[in-house]
Amino acid sequence: MLDPVEFKDWQIAEEAEKSMLSPEQWRDKLGLTNEELIPYGKTPKLDFIKIMDRLKDRPNGKFIEVTAITPTPLGEGKSTTSLGLIEGLGKRGMNVGGCLRQPSGGPTMNVKGTAAGGGNALLIPMTEFSLGLTGDINDIQNAHNLCMVALNARMQHEANYSDEELAKRNLKRLDIDPKRVEMGWVMDFAAQGLRNIIMGLGGKRDGFMMSSKFAITVSSELMAILAVATDLKDLRERISNMIVAYDKYGNYVTAGDLEVDGAMAAFMRNTINPTLCYTVEHQPVLVHAGPFANIAIGQSSIIGDRVGLKMFDYHVTESGFAADIGFEKFWNVKTRLSGLEANVSVLVATIRALKMHGGGPAVVPGRPIPEEYTKQNMALVEKGCENLLHHMKNIKKSGINPVVCINSFATDTKEEIALVKKIVEEAGGRCALSEHWKYGGDGALELADAVMDACKEPVDFKYLYPLDMPLRQRVDIIAREVYGADGVDWTPDAEAKAKAFEADPKFNDFQTMMVKSHLSLSHDPTLKGVPKNWRLPIRDVLVYGGAKFICPMAGGISMMPGTGSDPGFRRIDVDVNTGKVSGLF
């Protein structure tokens, strides 16, 4: 084991990969048949249908969800903690695995880096995991962009041909409104220069001229569909129902209307199976889906969790962003769609974030951390625990047992850690210190023990709201009960849309996917701790017909992030003699 203080993540990964089992050895270790493991280099896929059929009568293992308090812009380390917990449970001799989301090329080549964890709580093979894996994101990108090709070509032909000429080509006029095209193009990089574009410049043979846009691939509705689909049939049906645009009369134009849904599903046929990766301590981790956590569900896939719960006695999954977004969607959306109830929710917190919520100065990526975060300050920690306790309370509302994990940093003091444990325990919760980043599984034993202990307790699971509750009431109860708002204010346009959705039975089974800042319990990222005396403003409501999401938007959101001035790609390189990649954090 290498010291992460002295060695980079890619160096730790490289060392761990020297003793990594081959896919065939993993097949035997996991008890898989030859047909259940689909070869793909170091990272094979698993045939989930065959595995589920063979293990259909096996009881599910314990289900552990990992979430976090409201983070600093630097994050709380949920992926690192998820991997550390898997390693810790492995050290205790448990049959354990997990399912994480696939990282996007945008963050990997930008300032955030890959989502492979860190230190000695790391996912391998790191290069493959960070640079495309088995091609799921590329397949989604191709399927999405094919839909846009079909749309623009159809608009061009309808503009250039009469109804009779269209009929000769076996086409029906769709009358697409160029001002109401919902989809844009996607690519898996953070390219702010492509957020808004004009396409079709040139003559009438050069496509239909219109305003368009690019988003990052992982924000595509196809990624959200992959996360919630139950099988290939369900995936195919959802793709058909994707709303691509509106016609000039206000009706939906879907991928099915464009007759491109079958080809899109063909591109995505292989994405349905999870990919097998591993921790640096050689526990199995499935990788499947990678959707946005704000406008989409922000979870690894339902398929991945179903497979993991059959294969492992303890299965760990992670929710994107803080508990007010990620856990709320896990609680009221993913669980409802999957029928899989968690035994435990691990709430990750850092002393650094608690100090920020206690009134500490702003934390800005790329700038030195103020000294308040590296020196003991009991008052800031105690005040900041209000945010932690708020999230704990929300987890308890679901009936799921919370375990607070203090994700350890070298600058944390014994007194600060003891204070957090005291506050959590006085509130009726479990709290464990974990040093997985530095020590791997050995550093996560206290956390593993707390989780196993919590798994022994019964779960009295209950949703925050019934599915037949009208949309505006759902938003109100989420705002009040989860965020701590005094109510909701709707713009006239947003309220009109909400009323229309409520009146149309077609949307009765659509899930509510809230969109807001992850840097505050409120919609305002500058409001830390537990904001008081505020109301949640809803400015718009989006609909995703294939994923079956209705998305009330509390603030602006960019589907295409921007690349910073000191991006990660400046440090990534390849050894031209060995082909080994360096610099992946």
TrEMBL record:
UniProt catalytic activity: (6S)-5,6,7,8-tetrahydrofolate + formate + ATP = (6R)-10-formyltetrahydrofolate + ADP + phosphate
Per the UniProt entry, the Enzyme Commission number(s) are 6.3.4.3
Keyword check for Cytoplasm: no
Where does the record place a coiled coil?
Answer: none
Q: What class of enzyme is it?
A: ligase
Biological or metabolic pathway of the protein: One-carbon metabolism; tetrahydrofolate interconversion
Task: Identify the keywords attached in UniProt to this record, alphabetized.
Answer: ATP-binding, Ligase, Nucleotide-binding, One-carbon metabolism
Q: Which PROSITE patterns does the record match to this protein?
A: FTHFS_2 (PS00722)
Q: MF terms per GO, please?
A: ligase activity
Q: Give residues annotated as binding ATP.
A: T72, P73, L74, G75, E76, G77, K78, S79
According to its UniProt record, what is one Pfam family this protein matches? FTHFS
Domain of life assignment: Bacteria
User: Does Isomerase count among this protein's keywords?
Assistant: no
| Family membership noted in the UniProt record | Belongs to the formate--tetrahydrofolate ligase family.
Q: What is this protein's record name?
A: Formate--tetrahydrofolate ligase
Q: What is the source species?
A: Dehalobacterium formicoaceticum
